[in-house]
Design a protein that fits this description.
Elements (H helix, E strand, L loop, with lengths): L2 E4 L2 E4 L4 E7 L8 E7 L6 E7 L5 E3 L7 E6 L4 E6 L8 E9 L2 E4 L3 E6 L1
Parallel strand pairs: 2-11
Antiparallel strand pairs: 1-3, 3-8, 4-5, 4-9, 5-6, 7-8, 9-10, 9-11
Amino acid sequence: VRLVESGGGLVQAGGSLRLSCAASGSTTSFDLMAWYRQAPGKQREVVGNIASSDGSTHYADSVKGRFTISRDNPKNTMYLQMNSLTVEDTAVYSCGAVRGREVYWGQGTQVTVSS
């Protein structure tokens, strides 16, 4: 299984970006897919996740109301729509997927928010 993120880049504070996570297999085969981020000098944190069973989503308090996770199953792709970005959102964003006891990771994409 390969997960490949794209869509990162440089954006001004207040702007928006949409990240994509393309899976080599069917996204519906995963129990859960999630977005993570790691800022320089900080631990990796969960941004949010989406369950395959019912499509329910959960978000970290720091992004609630600004970020939205969605999934396009025919395209085997998960998205992270990020709005009202702040400099504190600067990080490497990675996607992950869980299938049973297996966990898969993408390589990450850099998001930099300038003030």
